[in-house]
Protein 1
Amino acid sequence: MIGWTLTRYIALRFTRSLLAMMLLLLFLIVTVDFIEGLRRVTDEVDVSIGTVYMISLYTAPFFIDKAFPFACLFAAMITLFQLNNKMELVVARAAGVSVWQFLMPISGAAVAIGIFAAMVYNPFAIKYYEQSLDLKAEAFGGEARTNAETATGFWLRQDDGNGASTVINARLARKSGAFLNGVQMIRFDRESRVTSQIEADAMLHRGDHWLALNAMITGSDQKIRQVSTLEIPTNLSREYLLGASGDADATGFWDLQHSAEKVRQSGLNHLPYLTQFHNLLALPLLLVAMVLIASTASLRFVRSGQVGTLILGGILGGFVLYASTRLATSLGSNGIVPPMVAAWSPSVVAILFGTSILLHQEDG
């Protein structure tokens, strides 16, 4: 039976490798995003370098949150390769420690890290991501865009009654769609003719109306007038705005179920929120699957000498698992399979597959 000292040693080695991978990813993401932000400052607006750096720093945790499975894969491979290179695994095997016993500390650490990432780190990353959007709106105004949006921004269409309607386009949607920046509105009558166009720096949802700030109105007669505030009636509820503008990936773990219920009440598709909730619940299992995939590519390093092939096999296995997880998430979000099945099945299948390979490698 593996002792506590060896268990703690292997778990700490893996945890240090994982932290090193996450810090490296943090540095790369902040650097790339900071350079992109500086390019925008040069071309469009005058913003201090410190503000651009803070935006990049606040945005980085959101993207790192998606990289935990790959960081776990590479950390497990690095840990096992290092233990093999130093003959520590050979000594452990000679002492009667099986492959399953010295994978237990890594798997246990992966489970603990997965729980922490889902329940603590994810809400933390979402909070700072929202702050980065606020900083972008203040620094870049209407030119800011969320990272998840397309180049055309955020679109809404509201029914104004009697056949009239309004199309709303915003470059940046915040506060669950209740705060829009860089807004353009086109209002149509019952004959689908344009009655007016409105451009506003920002627009806030106030229940039964939108409050447009610093608005410029172009009437059907092409005359332009500018007002500091303008109230525009709306029948769109906050629940509908959440469903239309919300991103399940940008919703914290503890808010996902509540948001799913609100979106369901609005009549929009709430399944992405439930699928994301189960994805986060299944994250510890996904990290264990990554550890097993890494072990199939790392444990035979000393004996086979085929380092490049084994490393490539492990990386490809991790990519296949991640791609399968994203595919299953898409199926669950669109109601093709139940969200729980979509979230948990890839990890379960990967663990069974990795276990089968290890049994074949170790026992023949």
Note: DSSP finds twelve helices and six strands in the chain.
Protein 2
Amino acid sequence: MKNLYGKLTELLRGMKTWVEGFADRPSAGWSLFAIAFVESSFFPIPPDVLLIAMSIAAPKKSYRYALICTAGSVCGAFLGYFIGYALFETVGRPILEFYGALGQFEVVLSNYRENGILALFIAGFTPIPFKLFTIAAGFNQTLDLTTLAVGSIVGRSARFFLVGSLLYFYGATIKTFLDRYFDRLSLAFVILLVLGFVAIKFLA
């Protein structure tokens, strides 16, 4: 168990370092937009990692970075929708299989039929995998593109601006905390992702 935990922590630390490496580049804003964009449809690493790194380096720009993150994520939601609508068998299904989420897919479709935009908002704000909902939206076509945009904007902006606000006011303190407790936070992050998949079953 300890070996598994160690390998998992090492993997997450490596991914964190790789993503944070974009924060020092002149194109950091575009990198943040790009990661937020692809995370909404297939990429496994949440843009919060880069958002935090950039905001810690420049706390007064936290809201600007949160806005970039939101814009990228919302645009990426349309890519996820397109994958579900036109490329489900060739692209969408392999993505869901990679995340082991095919079992939850029918539940998500049911959530859309019963809860509509509320399900999308919850997925956008919480650790529930957002890509699963954007792909399902296109596949199910219960939500129109306007509803997809509104739900994505509300859910994603609430999440990223909350992170941005914390870093705006407590950037230095949070950096010290993250560096000190990274191993424990990594484990908590994985647990939250797993709980995100589990929580899907209770939204119907």
Note: The chain has a mean pLDDT of 78.
